Amino acid sequence: MTTLDRFDTAGLEILTPAECLRLLGSVPLGRLVYTYGGLPVVRLVNFVVDADTVVFASADGDKLRAAERGDVVAFEADAVDPDRHLGWTVTSVGHLSVVPSDEAEQLAREIRLRSWAPLLNPRLIRLGIESVSGRRLRPWAQRPHD
């Protein structure tokens, strides 16, 4: 533990934006949180972090329409070790957009995004990260003590 480490009132380490992006890029699945019919919806998506954006594929449906509208959404990913009581969570917020077809072709060649779901006519969707925050549960010996 360094003097630069910051912890919240629950003793969770507060992650820097750079560490949040690094951790986001280390897992293949995340949760897209958006609204549908005025109610919150959570969908599991596989994704890739591209610089300061999250990119995933979608067929026609709710997620694509949210991207076409430019909706503000949240995106969460995590990793948890329940046996050792360790883990982290990162949440980002921003606007969705549909990646234009000409850019999508180039982007698809540059990133390693392969949809796990069989999508008909998939479109690439981008979440422009406008804010990102995260917390990590450290090993007992590295947690702050009163």
Share of helix, binned: 10-25%
Could you list the spans in which at least 5 consecutive residues all have pLDDT below 50?
Answer: none
Mean pLDDT: 89
β-strand percent reads 35-45%
Q: Helical element count? A: 3
Rg calculated over all Cα atoms? 17 Å
Please specify the SSE layout and strand pairing.
Blueprint lengths: L12 E2 L2 H8 L4 E8 L2 E8 L1 E3 L2 E6 L3 H8 L2 E10 L4 E13 L2 H10 L12 E15 L9
Task: Report on the architecture of this protein.
The chain has three helices and eight strands. The protein has helices at 17-24, 62-69, 101-110; strands spanning 13-14, 29-36, 39-46, 48-50, 53-58, 72-81, 86-98, 123-137. Strands 1, 2, 3, 4, 5, 6, 7 and 8 form an eight-stranded antiparallel sheet that branches. Strand 6 and strand 7 form a beta hairpin. The two termini are 15 Å apart. The model has no long low-confidence stretch (mean pLDDT 89).
